[in-house]
């Protein structure tokens, strides 16, 4: 199926590894010119090198998406390098899991700043260009955690916030040919998750609670993002696509 996004330009935040790297690769395979951006310089460069080795178009820009000036530089450099910007995937994020009584202000602030403020700054930075060209795609990577998880008050709140923001912007920007949607992953087998000391226990519990009895893979998310970024999804906006193996609660 031709997704109709060949030669579009995408920024994927937090794409040095994991879901972001898989998403960058999937978009690049569709002919999209991809900007890999992260604070992890060496890993981001390695991801770009791997994409280029396969004949795909990719460029690395190191940026801290919690800083407005750096986000503006990220977008300006993207446009200078590839000639435009059409797709934004707000993927950057990480957990700082603790029970609320043990959660510090720093635990709360860091998660909110990267996931929610970062998405706000990046979306605001690309929006004038999207409006000017009358075409744009914003895909926020939320999580099944938006329903709520113990020890994840910060993470769940941020992921729910991404959904609220997407729904508001879908209404606000639809008149300009811009769609704004979310992908909500369930349990995914990423490097970050595999590094957890309780990984095997978490994995077993997650699979037991899913109708589809396998772990999710980064490519499952990447495929969902590619669809929502495509012309095939041009009448879909303000939606949350759960990629969870059938688990919702």
UniProtKB/TrEMBL annotation:
The keyword Signal does not apply. Its EC number is 1.1.1.-. Residues 8-186 form the Ketoreductase domain. Keywords: Oxidoreductase. GO terms for molecular function: oxidoreductase activity. SMART domains: PKS_KR (SM00822). NCBIfam families: PRK07231.1 (NF005559), PRK12826.1-2 (NF009466). Belongs to the short-chain dehydrogenases/reductases (SDR) family. This is SDR family NAD(P)-dependent oxidoreductase. It comes from Polaromonas jejuensis. The lineage of its organism: Bacteria, Pseudomonadati, Pseudomonadota, Betaproteobacteria, Burkholderiales.
């Amino acid at each position: 199926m031709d997704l109709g996004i060949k030669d579009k330009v995408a920024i994927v935040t937090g794409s040095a590894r994991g879901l972001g790297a898989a998403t960058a690769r999937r978009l690049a395979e569709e002919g999209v010119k991809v900007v890999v951006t992260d604070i992890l310089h060496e890993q981001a460069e390695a991801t770009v090198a791997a994409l280029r080795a396969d004949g795909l178009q990719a460029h690395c820009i190191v940026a801290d998406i919690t800083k407005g000036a750096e986000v503006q530089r990220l977008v300006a450099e993207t446009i200078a390098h590839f000639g435009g910007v059409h797709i934004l995937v707000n993927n950057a994020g990480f957990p700082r899991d603790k029970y609320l009584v043990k959660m510090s202000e720093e635990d709360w602030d860091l998660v909110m700043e990267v996931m929610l403020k970062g998405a706000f700054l990046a979306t605001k930075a690309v929006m004038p260009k999207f409006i000017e060209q009358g075409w744009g795609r914003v895909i926020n990577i939320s999580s099944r955690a938006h329903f709520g998880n113990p020890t994840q008050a910060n993470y769940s709140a941020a992921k729910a916030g991404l959904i609220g923001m997407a729904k508001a912007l879908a209404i606000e920007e639809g008149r300009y040919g811009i769609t704004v949607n979310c992908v909500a992953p369930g349990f995914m087998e990423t490097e970050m998750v595999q590094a957890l000391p309780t990984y095997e226990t978490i994995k077993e519990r997650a699979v037991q609670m899913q109708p589809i009895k396998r772990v999710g893979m980064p490519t499952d998310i990447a495929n969902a993002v590619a669809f929502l970024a495509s012309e095939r999804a041009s009448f879909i906006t303000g939606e949350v696509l759960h990629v969870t193996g059938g688990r919702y609660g």
